[in-house]
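I am still getting used to backbone structure tokens and would like to learn alongside you. Label the sequence line and the structure token line clearly, so we can match residues to local backbone shapes. Would you write everything just below, so we can both look at the same thing?
***
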Amino acid sequence: MRLALDLCIVYTANPEDYTNRGTIITPLKDRIDSQIMTHYPATVEDAIAITGQEAWTRREDVCEVPVPRLLRELVEEIGFQARKSEFVDQGSGVSARLSISAMENLVSNCERRALRTGERRVMPRLCDFYALVPAIAGKIELVYEGEREGVTAVAKRILGQAVQAAFKRSFPDAYAAKPAKGRARPGPGTKDSPLDGTIYKPVLDWFAGGGRVEITDAMPAEDYARALGRVPGLREIAEKQLRPTEGELALAMEFVLEGLHQNSLVAREDLESAVSYKDMLKTMFESMGSSREEE
């Protein structure tokens, strides 16, 4: 006699085994004599959907934290870059929990700022991403070369690669112009630089003239927007390429600066509790001068 049964059987395994080579292996194989093949999210859209479903972000007990599409993509890009990193053990894998933890840390850092400033609606910033370093470091295993670099250094490197990849998708290549054959490419601020014809020229010229922007993840929203608004042409670039809402404008402007830094056009100095953007060439000369003094 055959009975038509409507059953759902659920098997479980220890969470750490979920990341191993993209498969759920020994524990479930022992229990159901099967190996279940899994895979990473194939697209950013899939990754955003998973993180949106699993991450604890709807709290609203301290403040409202709206996470713009730009930052949602950037959080997922961290996972994509980690899965390509030469310093990360790809045999152990990089699970979706990296992005989930990173998103939760991002919201928590915004809540910390709200407690300091008293703001009830807090827009995340790119400088909040330094709070994601522990989430990245806690969700990756390193190969020997990565261990030599240090897990914090590798996490920051992955963050930078994520910003660079996202920046390239939305902004034109500043170095698209090619120099004449046999000539070295002039740098920013030099005569006949290929940057002279780009949208970034007003920004780079301002930094070359001694301009400097210092921002923190603790400063009130008005001070944050005012500091970024001092840079000529920065608002226009952000509006043209990203078309942000009024509330997202300052974030978009910071993203432009960080993208230029990741493309070696603007220098960034990580201070004790702040991030400072300044001219790249001047920073290089200052560094060379310091090295000679030490010698």
